[in-house]
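tokens incoming
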């Protein structure tokens, strides 16, 4: 059954001109926000750890963008364009841990 489902998803993703280059974005509802197209209710997450908070934030944002680009293409992977973007950080004994949370958007 898994092979059949994957085959169906691949055929659907490649079969429509509208979906080319958007990876699995067609699986999600979309909304128009501030001149962008955003996922309606689907969030992605990224995490990063480093000695400084700024570096941990950068790593978390990069992890978020990498995952979004891998699933939906680079047009969706801009942290600056993302909706409801938030970054939460915690200081441990030796390093900071940061978590990025946002809905992917594209222009």
């Amino acid at each position: 059954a898994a092979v059949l489902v994957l085959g169906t998803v691949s055929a659907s993703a490649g079969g429509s001109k509208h979906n080319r280059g958007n990876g699995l974005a067609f699986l999600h509802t979309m909304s128009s926000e501030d001149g962008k197209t955003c996922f309606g209710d689907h969030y992605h997450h990224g995490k990063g750890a480093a000695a400084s908070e700024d570096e941990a934030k950068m790593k978390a944002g990069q992890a978020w963008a990498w995952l979004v680009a891998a699933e939906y293409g680079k047009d969706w992977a801009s942290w600056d364009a993302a909706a409801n973007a938030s970054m939460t950080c915690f200081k441990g004994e030796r390093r900071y841990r940061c978590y990025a949370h946002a809905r992917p958007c594209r222009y």
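note: Residues 1-20 have pLDDT under 50 and may be disordered.
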